[in-house]
Design brief:
membrane; Erv_C; 2 domains; six-stranded antiparallel beta sheet; elongated; 4 helices; eight-stranded mixed beta sheet; alpha+beta; single chain
């Protein structure tokens, strides 16, 4: 282990998450970091796949509504709450009415959505979240009839912070969180550990491991915030280095001698036990007398 000296690099985030109860039209992805700097050239490659009620893909679209916002506090929920409430009230136009009808029809048909792709964010603490926050508050109320009816059940197929190396374990892969007759916000608190994997060929693969703690906040009738799935990450100041090593010939000989010695010792013990068992059986048999 050593102190992480990387500066000015980005943090890659690979996501693949399915929402079986929310159509793609209502989902948006927001990225926020704690630097207080508004990044206008956030590099993203995110796609949304429309899913039928059986989980089969029925359509795809490029997700162009990814936003990175500056945020000066850790209170992410309230920040988005204000963003939503500031949207001016207006009469629904034809496009809004069309969208509402389309989304309601999709929900009646059991349509879901898979969000997948990659984000490149700054190497500072922050979060990204998938939610319905991109909707106008009035449109959202028309679709869901209140925040308590937004079902953010989800399946995390993959979440990683860089390329994979042999033996890596991403703790959120294949994680399923399904809600029944309730709603709320999921928060995953992630500690990212910078990692270097050094191959026998002297090649170096820079990547990241992570640990996670999850928390669920049920929605209450008095809450003004809307359900979402948050991934809040922070970076460890320590870099872990993993090296591939090949055992030398002397180590092989030592292990071979240990195995052979153990085999001979066990064989000798078995031989002594068998001799004593046979001897005790033979001595216990009655001998016939001479006539």
């Amino acid at each position: 282990m050593s102190v992480d000296l990387k500066r000015g690099e980005t943090l890659p985030i690979h996501i693949n998450v399915s929402f079986p109860s929310l159509p793609c039209e209502v989902l948006s992805v927001d990225a926020i970091d704690m630097s207080g700097k508004h990044e206008v050239d956030l590099h993203t490659n995110i796609w949304k796949l429309r899913l039928d009620k059986y989980g089969h893909i029925i359509g795809t679209e490029y997700l162009s509504d990814l936003v990175e916002k500056e945020h000066g506090t850790h209170d992410h929920d309230h920040g988005h709450e204000h963003d939503v409430e500031k949207k001016p009230e207006h009469t629904f136009n034809e496009d809004a009415d069309k969208m509402i009808k389309s989304v309601k029809l999709a929900m009646e048909n059991g349509e879901g959505c898979r969000v997948y792709g990659a984000l490149d964010v700054q190497r500072v603490a922050g979060n990204f979240h998938i939610s319905v926050h991109g909707l106008n508050i009035f449109v959202a109320n028309q679709i869901f009839d209140g925040s308590s009816h937004v079902n953010v059940s989800h399946v995390i197929h993959r979440l990683s912070f860089g390329p994979e190396y042999p033996g890596i374990h991403n703790p959120l892969d294949d994680t399923s969180r399904i809600l029944h007759d309730t709603s709320g916000t999921f928060k995953y608190y992630i500690k990212v550990v910078p990692t270097e994997y050094r191959y026998l060929s002297k090649g170096v693969l820079p990547t990241n491991q992570f640990s996670v703690t999850e928390y669920f906040v049920p929605i209450r009738p008095t809450d003004r915030s809307w359900p979402a799935v948050y991934f809040l990450y922070d970076l460890s100041p320590i870099t872990v280095t993993i090296r591939e090593e090949r055992r030398n010939f002397l180590h092989f000989i030592t292990r071979l001698c240990a195995v052979l010695g153990g085999t001979f010792a066990m064989t000798g013990m078995l031989d002594r036990w068998m001799y004593r068992i046979i001897e005790s059986i033979s001595s216990s048999k009655p001998r016939s007398g001479m006539r």
